[in-house]
């Protein structure tokens, strides 16, 4: 399959982790003028791949006519380039959020409706494929915790020095929709419950000179069946921490409490506390390709990509306006 890559500001590493004889990376381009793609080119060359280089992504897509385009440029452009891919009939592996505003998301939904069954796209919800989250989902589906009544999720990252486009809401999109969206996805994917409303707060204080970037935030969600879910996000993980991220998930059920913490899965029920061995690591890009090739079903669907992005945008709106937003 011929693959083109637009940009290098996201998780193109998912693609490099799943290189095979079926994948031919033929060309790359920046997604916005001035985007530095040298890190991408360096890693491709380390893998003995010498792609053609274009300055304009649209010219690249028209000339190369790829089967797949990987879209991971500055975040405000990902949704616009996804629209172009859908219009051109090109399958897309796109960074999340797939849109940073409701208008782009609505256009994506309309375009996908026209090409559904012919063109496929997936948001880069690669954390679903981490062993501990796969194990947690399997336990919930087995009925091990009973009926879910309460959920809490945490996303915590080291801030470091982020690129300049992170410093502007117009180009970054906001921390809730960039970081928090992962946890919004876990909650829906594992519980299979839909969101009804959200209230949220966020703050830019102590963002180490990163302009409009929020470094803390919290969301309170109302889910179906009176289930309550909370989510916190922060960019204040200490630089001395062993890992870049600190992802946590806690699901309280009528039979047990299930926790994902420190990359471990712990279940506490009437018989005590149990540590579960995690499943094998999955590969989202491989899963995406298998869907296109007719070899399987991708765990992240276009419909879920649209839905979770919509919820994240609602949460950001709630934080911006300090009011409850219906979903």
Properties at a glance:
327 residues, Dihydrodipicolinate Reductase, domain 2, 2 domains, 9-stranded mixed sheet, 6-stranded parallel sheet
Average pLDDT metric: 98
Parts with pLDDT < 50 across at least 5 consecutive residues: none
Q: What structural class do you assign from the helix and strand content?
A: alpha/beta
Second rung of CATH, namely the architecture of the largest domain: 2-Layer Sandwich
Supply the number of structural domains.
2
Main sheet makeup: 9 strands, mixed
Q: What distance lies between the first and last C-alpha atoms, to the nearest angstrom?
A: 38 Å
Would you state the CATH class of the largest domain?
Alpha Beta
Strand share of the residues?
15-25%
Order of helices and strands: EHEHEHEHEHEHEHHEEEEEEEHHE
| Order of strands across the main sheet | 14-13-12-11-7-10-9-8-15
CATH H-level superfamily title of the largest domain: Dihydrodipicolinate Reductase, domain 2
Explain what you see:
There is one protein chain. This protein folds into two domains: 2-119, NAD(P)-binding Rossmann-like Domain (Rossmann fold), CATH 3.40.50.720; 129-281 and 311-326, 2-Layer Sandwich (Dihydrodipicolinate Reductase, domain 2), CATH 3.30.360. The protein is built from ten helices and 15 strands. The chain has helices at residues 13-16, 38-46, 57-64, 75-88, 102-115, 131-141, 169-172, 175-191, 284-293, 302-321; strands spanning 2-6, 24-29, 52-53, 68-71, 91-94, 121-123, 148-156, 195-203, 216-223, 228-234, 248-253, 257-261, 264-269, 272-276, 325-326. The strands form two sheets. The protein has a nine-stranded mixed sheet with strand order 14-13-12-11-7-10-9-8-15. Strand 2 (24-29), helix 2 (38-46) and strand 3 form a beta-alpha-beta unit. Helix 4 packs parallel to helix 5 (102-115) and helix 8 packs across helix 10.
């Amino acid at each position: 399959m011929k693959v083109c890559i637009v940009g290098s500001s996201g998780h193109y590493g998912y693609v490099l982790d799943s290189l095979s004889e079926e994948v031919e990376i033929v060309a790359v381009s920046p997604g916005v003028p001035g985007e530095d793609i040298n890190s991408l080119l360096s890693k491709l060359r380390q893998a003995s791949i010498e792609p053609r280089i274009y300055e304009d992504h649209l010219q690249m897509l028209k000339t190369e006519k790829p089967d797949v385009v990987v879209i991971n440029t500055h975040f405000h452009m990902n949704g616009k380039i996804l629209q172009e891919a859908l219009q051109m009939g090109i399958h897309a592996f796109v960074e999340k959020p797939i849109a940073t505003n409701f208008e782009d998301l609505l256009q994506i939904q309309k375009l996908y409706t026209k090409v559904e069954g012919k063109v496929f796209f997936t948001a880069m919800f690669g954390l679903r494929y981490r062993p501990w989250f796969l194990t947690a989902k399997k336990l919930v589906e087995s009925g091990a915790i009973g009926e879910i009544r309460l959920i809490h999720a945490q996303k915590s990252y080291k801030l470091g020095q982020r690129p300049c486009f992170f410093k502007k809401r117009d180009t970054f999109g906001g921390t809730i929709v960039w970081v928090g969206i992962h946890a919004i996805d876990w909650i829906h994917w594992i519980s299979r419950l839909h969101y009804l409303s959200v209230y949220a707060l966020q703050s830019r204080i102590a963002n180490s000179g990163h302009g409009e970037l929020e470094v803390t935030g919290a969301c309170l969600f109302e889910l179906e069946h009176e289930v309550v879910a909370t989510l916190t996000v922060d960019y204040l993980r200490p630089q001395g921490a062993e890992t870049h991220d600190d992802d946590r998930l806690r699901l309280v059920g009528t039979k047990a409490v299930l926790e994902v913490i420190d990359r471990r899965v712990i279940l506490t029920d009437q018989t005590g506390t149990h540590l579960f061995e995690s499943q094998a690591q999955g590969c989202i890009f491989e899963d995406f390709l298998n869907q296109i090739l007719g070899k399987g079903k991708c765990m992240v669907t276009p419909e879920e990509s649209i839905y979770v992005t919509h919820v994240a945008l609602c949460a950001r709106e709630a934080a911006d306006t300090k009011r409850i937003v219906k979903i």
